Amino acid sequence: MASPQPASGTYIREARTADSPVLNRICLLTGDAGKSAEHLHKFGELIGLVYAEPYVHLPTTFGFVLVDPTKDDAVVGYALGTYDTRAFERAALDDWYPRVRAKYSYPPETNEGATDADKRYISILHNPPRAPQAAVDYSPAHMHIDILPAYQSQGWGRRLMSRVVAYLREERRLDKMWLGLDPRNDGAKKFYLALGFKELPGAPEGTMGLEFKDFRG
């Protein structure tokens, strides 16, 4: 069910498998510490193959998207995640990565024209990392959120985050979640801190956790 719509008509609904291509695109357009990463890639789909699309194709996942009906119901932002990180990682290893890595050879430098950023993500496709144990010990749930620049600073990030918290608390009976952010993205860090997130001790830089009792939605 969609959230109540403000005057602009923009609203939030559950993510669908059919949203996959636009989720990939939004991930690219926000992939350089919140700015477009298009200039960093020859193969622009790579970042979204890691951080966006799996969350509408694999089990134990959830997602909500921001939709602008004045632009033919275009998806303009998302909050995606999993309530069981380790199960998600296993499913990605078994099903997702074997499919999407097929067009990218390994080692990464064998892909003609691949940029340094491309090579990084090709390496991830062939050798997916595991989430930090300190983060998983904190909560089995993690998430990603990205919104196109034109829709930022309008309260939509807070609304999307509220939907995620409500889902995890009410549907999955969880009381915490975590996320990772690019340490260069000062704006994102300020946003998360304002919502009640805190840096996780023992986890890599940029890993932040939220106890739902502290959520300021």
Care to describe what's here?
Helix content is 34%, strand content 18%. The chain is an alpha+beta fold. The strands form 2 sheets. The protein has a 4-stranded antiparallel beta sheet with strand order 1-2-3-4, with helices on both faces. It has a 3-stranded antiparallel beta sheet with strand order 5-7-6. The protein has helices spanning 20-29, 46-51, 85-100, 116-126, 133-138, 156-170, 186-195; strands at residues 11-14, 61-68, 74-82, 142-147, 176-180, 198-199, 207-211. It is globular, with a radius of gyration of 17 Å. It has a single domain, classed as Aminopeptidase, CATH 3.40.630. This is Acyl-CoA N-acyltransferase.
CATH fold-type name: Aminopeptidase
Shape: globular
How many domains would you count in the coordinates? 1
Query: Radius of gyration, rounded?
Result: 17 Å
CATH class: Alpha Beta
Low-confidence stretches: 3-7
Domain N-acetyltransferase: 83-213
Protein name: Acyl-CoA N-acyltransferase
Organism: Polyporus arcularius HHB13444
Keywords: Acyltransferase, Transferase
